[in-house]
Amino acid sequence: MKVKLQEDVLKDQNLSANFNREHFNTSKTLVVNMMSSPGAGKTTLLEETIKLLVDQYTVAVIEGDLATDRDAERLRALGVQTVQINTVGGCHLDARMIAKKIPEFDLEEIDILFIENIGNLVCPSGYDLGQHYKVAVLSVPEGNDKIPKYPVMFRRTDMTIINKIDLLPYVPFDLEEAESDLQFINPSAKFQALSAKTGEGLDRWITWLKEAYQQCTKQ
Amino acid sequence: MKVKLQEDVLKDQNLSANFNREHFNTSKTLVVNMMSSPGAGKTTLLEETIKLLVDQYTVAVIEGDLATDRDAERLRALGVQTVQINTVGGCHLDARMIAKKIPEFDLEEIDILFIENIGNLVCPSGYDLGQHYKVAVLSVPEGNDKIPKYPVMFRRTDMTIINKIDLLPYVPFDLEEAESDLQFINPSAKFQALSAKTGEGLDRWITWLKEAYQQCTKQ
């Protein structure tokens, strides 16, 4: 599938989001926008997720960073196409940046595209990238008070993943309170707790992704 | 000391920063701007720091948050004046917000004023608040790759504190690499590792604050 970019698309965030969405829907590529604070474990979660998907699905990644391509290198090591966006200090990805990268992918061949956003619990939440789902990752050491303290992020996401549950014995984090805070802020959001490091809880996340992919190909 | 705000000060970030700095210098109040990702432990570090300072110093806090005054309540419980700034979604404090809050303090009576910035490793770094020192807090669970990955923050700070060293046995974090990465990005920056939770290493941080206060009152 050839993708032609028009200049007016690149001028406007919302036009670009719709442009991206149209392409993702046409090619039946499930697109998941992953957001979190720095160090919540998005890249490690993606590594483990990709390992569990690559036998059945063609996966690709758009990797957002302020600087360096360290995370992209980690994902390329798994043999998946990974396209880097360096924002050079910018605190979020926007739909125009994604639109510019679409021609680098053969979307028809890609089943699931993950977008790893800039590590930031504030800025990325306001930007529609044309994705099917927005997923927020919050890690146990950050504390469960981050859901009410950063409501804009958690209000706008389809799922919140609590990562690093292997650290629950060492740091205070109330999983039940986190779930009920999320329920209050965003009643329709999914809530999953897991550890990308130990693999605990990953199966539920993989099941959710497979179902989301099926939904996406049915449209 | 009465502080009169002029409208042009509030219109301009840099004018406001200089306005703030002038007031802080006149009253000989040491001002430290604390920045980090969400959940790196700024508030806990401030709690433990304040407990170790209040016998000798009058301490106050400006507490930045997107929403809620949970952190301000934690600090008020220690008996220190804490003024809340809610940015309603804004990802950093700026000098104008600080300038507007200055009249709420009797600066002549305050020895050390901490500004707890919004939890964000990107946006706050670009804003001079008129402080004497900028301190970045990075926590062990975030991983030591965050220094090269978020260079803008670490390049612009006077000190980087590595917090939560009590978690070093449970998560991969290379303290030496962190120190040498910081050295490379910002050779003049101080580097301290501590655990606000266990108290390990806090003495060095308190010593640094006391010396910084002495410098500030000498000017």
UniProtKB/TrEMBL annotation, chains A, B:
Pfam families: cobW
BP GO annotations: protein maturation
Signal peptide, first to last residue: none
Domain (CobW/HypB/UreG nucleotide-binding) ranges: 31-191
Taxonomy, superkingdom: Bacteria
Record key words, sorted: GTP-binding, Hydrolase, Metal-binding, Nickel, Nucleotide-binding, Zinc
GO molecular function: GTP binding; GTPase activity; nickel cation binding; zinc ion binding
Family: Belongs to the SIMIBI class G3E GTPase family. HypB/HupM subfamily.
PANTHER family hit by this protein: HYDROGENASE MATURATION FACTOR HYPB, HYDROGENASE PROTEIN ASSEMBLY PROTEIN, NICKEL CHAPERONE
Protein name according to UniProt: Hydrogenase nickel incorporation protein HypB
Native source organism of the sequence: Pontibacillus yanchengensis
Gene name tied to this protein: hypB
